[in-house]
Amino acid sequence: MSTLRDNPGLLVAATLLGAALVVPATAYAQASAADSPPADAVAALRQRIEAKDYEQAVTEARRLVDLALQRPEAGEDLQVAYMNLAVAQYLAGDYVGAEASYLKVIELVEASGRLTNPRLARAQAGLATTYYAGKRYDLAVAHFDRAVALSRRSEGLFNEAQLPLLEKYADSLTEVGRTEDALKVQRYALRVVERKHGAKSVPYASQLEAIGRWYAQVRAYEASRATIRGAIGILEDLKGDDAVELIGPLTALADCNRRQLLDPRDEELTSADDQRRAMFHDPMAPVGPALASNSIASEGQKALERAVAIASSRPETAPAQVADVRTQLGDWYQARQQFDKALPAYQQAWQAAVGQTLDGKPLTERLFGRPVLLYYVPPDAWDRNARRSADEIAVQTVAVELTVTSQGRVSAAQVVADGGDPKFAAQTAKAAQAARYRPRFEQGQPVETTGVKLEQPFWIVVEKKPETPEAQAPKADPAPPSAGT
Q1: 301-345: pLDDT as tens digits
Q2: Is residue 299 domain-shared with residue 396, that is, in the same domain?
Q3: Are strands 372-375 and 436-438 parallel, antiparallel or unpaired?
Q4: Which of 129, 200, 307, 390 lies at a 20 to 30 A Cα distance from 422?
């Protein structure tokens, strides 16, 4: 379910900006008179970033690096300049460039011998976040681990600055299949919040919501519901039954239930499987009896309806949040193939979004400018080999071009790339026909959209070529040099 919560996370980058865009007192003291004053150069960079002109921000950041390089002993000035460049490259989506710049900062700091320099922790965090944004999760895990360790060493074991890192760290661990380690990170984040704010606080409830969403992501639905209900109970006690703060956990509860209802392997997960249930055993999330499908559906729908009622009745609720939660209610009905109920919710969301912007774009375009995939069951065993070592597998990707009707159904699915295997192509085309989308809207009305692309990866085992007889035979010792050489 695509919501405003799914926007690309720049929280870590914003934190880094505050630390990176700094000019030391001695910076550029020997820069030539022809160069712009350092303060002006930094101001220009900050202005470009605030205007979201990231390509030009990279140019300004490179100028700062060039200024620093003019000094024979730039020292920390050069570290700061490369940090500026790395942040600008990250925001511009140049993850390869950002990677190189962060690695340069790390090299410079380590060469200086000041391993306790907080900049080293920020550079590691930036590098990890860059890998995360580029979906290179194995590398992200390693550098999040280092960044968190450095953050704890320099700022304390339970400092809140590590929370954005812990969130992405847990996500990265989940992506590489290390769910037990991800759970440990989630629990630690909760301890950080509890030490600072207490277990009966809004931040603690917010962290419970985050953990509940993660449980749903890894398909531990009972644990997810128990955790989110805990967050709801705390907020009701603190803020009352119609608090705006309840919108987040209420929508999280609905998302958990929607995921379970649409999970093709739900029967396996809700059966009596003590081993799996023990895997996610957590005192803060006692796992109760499995719910029947109609109870799951009823609870999820009521949670969303309650969230809509709160958002619509409280004057302090931003129109963007009203639009978001109404869109989620529409998605709930649409995923359950109830377009007659989804359409009014979508249209009310559109009305709330009119005139609002997000990251410089109209909110109506953000929510309804393209079809959004809500329901899709991949072909069986598409990821069966995904956990094998990298040298054993390869990825074959099938691409299908769709027409999404005004009701969010797929009316045509044409394979445009078979991934080298017609069988995979046929399986993907069949799966795509059953997909459901939030339709694109124009002027508040749903419209048909052609040329929608859906890509389905398949992880296959690569057959190793047998060694030739020559390669298998033992190699002879090299001949001694002949006489006269």
Answers
A1: 999 999 999 999 998 899 999 999 999 999 999 999 999 999 999
A2: no
A3: antiparallel
A4: 390
